[in-house]
Amino acid sequence: MGAHRAPSVSIGLPVYNAGAFLRPALDSVMAQTYENFEFIISDNASTDGTSEVCQELAASDPRVRYYRNPTNRGAVFNHNRLVSLARGTYFKWCGHDDLIEPTFVERCVEVLDADVDRRFVLCFTLRDTIDEAGEPLPDAVQAPAFDDPLPHQRLRKFWAAPRMHQTIYGVIRLDALHRTGLIADYYGSDRQTLIELALIGGFARIDEVLFHHREHPGRSQYTEDKRVWMTAVRRNGKPDFGYWRRLGLVSEILGRDYLEPGDRLRLTAEYARYGLRRASHWLPQLGREIGGAAATAVRLSGRSAGDD
């Protein structure tokens, strides 16, 4: 790719101590039939040889840009940094352990380029699940496809779909992504990013398996302290208000400039209906966070009294 030619697609890899899964993931990106892309790697101060592998790739292909953080800043910083570095019309996050077929980017770009009315802000494909050795595992869950005209209709379709998180690895219109709050500093906030994208536009899906999600014990889902994984900051006894943060984010989303007044009213009603359906799950979680905060305050107060 010549220096004068801007990339159409920015592919961003946030990475930290990727281990044996890294090279296959890198190879699957570099094997794309769609060649007008830049591959941006943000390394969170890896200590296992990840840096050397990524630097070797960057030295071999001018499309690859490698950045290394001086310290581990956590997954939130690393994911969002890639968006700020991107220069393409479209953007795609990729995981260090997942694989994409050679035509993944090409097929998604074809759909978004042909969408002159911008009904869609994201394009994904069918996917399957593989294990550590690359062998298939049973998994029938797929991302939804929707292009309903109103934001609250698209939000309803999004909520009706199970396990949406893998859809964040689709090809996304970068200007739409910039209008969201990106990834927030609590676990599961990628779902909120997807919700915001759904409020801006629909999700397209190519009904061909071009994405291979790898299931293994090292995934973030199985991390004991997810806050450390997200922010690289230990809690040190401080309460985690993740569920209260989710509620606060709703008010932020309803105030975004991509929503019309009528959309805000309909979305408020949609959120209220959803909240009633999920109350049995949310209320205990919210109560536990308040209880944890109160217990921490009492404990800290006792320490202060003991110091006097």
CATH superfamily of the largest domain: Spore Coat Polysaccharide Biosynthesis Protein SpsA, Chain A
Q: Could you say which structural class the secondary elements and strand pairing correspond to?
A: alpha/beta
Low-confidence stretches: none
Biggest β-sheet description: 9 strands, mixed
SSE pattern, N- to C-terminal: EHEHEHEEHEEHEHHEHHHH
CATH architecture of the largest domain: Alpha-Beta Complex
Level-1 CATH class name of the largest domain: Alpha Beta
Total number of β-strand segments?
Answer: 9
Chain-averaged pLDDT: 89
Strand composition percent: 15-25%
What share of the residues lie within helices? Answer: 40-55%
Task: Give the C-alpha Rg.
Answer: 21 Å
Global geometry: globular
Keywords:
308 residues, 9 strands, alpha/beta, 11 helices, globular, Spore Coat Polysaccharide Biosynthesis Protein SpsA, Chain A, nine-stranded mixed beta sheet
List the helices and strands and how they pair.
Elements lengths: L8 E7 L6 H9 L6 E7 L6 H11 L3 E5 L5 H12 L4 E4 L5 E2 L3 H11 L5 E11 L5 E2 L13 H10 L10 E3 H5 L10 H12 L1 E13 L11 H6 L10 H13 L6 H17 L1 H29 L1
Q: Short summary of the structure?
A:
With 308 residues, the protein is of the alpha/beta class.
Characterize the structure shown:
- The radius of gyration is 21 Å and the shape is globular.
- It has 2 domains: 214 residues, Spore Coat Polysaccharide Biosynthesis Protein SpsA, Chain A (Alpha-Beta Complex), CATH 3.90.550.10; 71 residues, no CATH class.
- Helix content is 44%, strand content 18%.
- The chain is built from 11 helices and 9 strands.
- Helix 5 packs parallel to helix 10.
- With 308 residues, the protein is an alpha/beta fold.
- Strands 1, 2, 3, 4, 5, 6, 7, 8 and 9 form a 9-stranded mixed sheet that branches.
